[in-house]
Amino acid sequence: MPVTSVTTDPEALTLTLVADFPVAPQRVWKAFTDPRQLERFWGPPGWPATFTAFDFAPGGVATYRMTGPRGESAGGRWEFTRIQEPTSFEVLDSFADVDGEQNPDMPASRMTFSFEETPDGSRLQSVTHFPSTEALAQLVAMGMVEGSTMAMAQLDTVLQDLREYAQGKGTRTEILSDQHVRITRLIDGPRELVWRAHHDSELMKQWLLGPDGWTMPVAEVATEVGDSYRYVWEPVGGGEGFGFEGELVHAEPGRRAVTTERMIGMDGPGTLNDLSLYEEDGATLLTLLIEYPDAATRDMILATGMTEGMETSYARLESLVLA
What is the C-alpha separation between 313 and 291, in angstroms, rounded? Predict the structure, then answer.
């Protein structure tokens, strides 16, 4: 994880984040000043940002909206006050309404981003200056420290070539918090086909099988928000099967689908599964963010060999896409 420290100073009314990267500072600068790259990490997992404006010049304005896993929306606004390319820039950072205008009911702050060379690559330092101790306390209580840390942890995938970052590493599982796990897998094929393979029941029955020795006789897919889905697996040759069911709660066709999930016939809370796809140079990075009800449930499910079973399925998926 690139973040090395996050500290608050109530006397100076600041929050300082420091992160180190194994690339030149010019590469990190580019990630923060290109809106298409910036929106890949500006926003914690499960709340990706979409920049609707980005006028990178003194006096210019950038606006964005972050969309939560259930379709919730939160807006932000930057006004660029100082730019010293390629070492630093400063913005007035505020919450924004649906039109991109500053929300006067929420505190605004001043943020500086600086980029410097280190023996191992580069260092990013972000300092947020708050107007009052109340504003600092309010935003920290809203999860600013945790959100910023998890957001910056996504920068690794942006700074490297996608194939270089993920090729040959198989399915990777990262524990982000007590409730959140992120699973990533590079699929050597276009996003359109990977999306189709997740939403065509006949294709799903060919690859979404977990370890060898299972079949998928039922694959009822949810295609519209509010639709229910139902998947059932049975062992080859007969025997006791199992299944999952849930609801599609948010969809951005072709790139993102969020579903609830619970085991058929089991009581208690389930999970929230946030699937997103990003294509670069003909390859697709599949990211699945899973929200568990608690750490105990998370650990119990991970201990079943989930990652290994998913890798077997994703390897079939890649073969299917390549075919």
Answer: 21
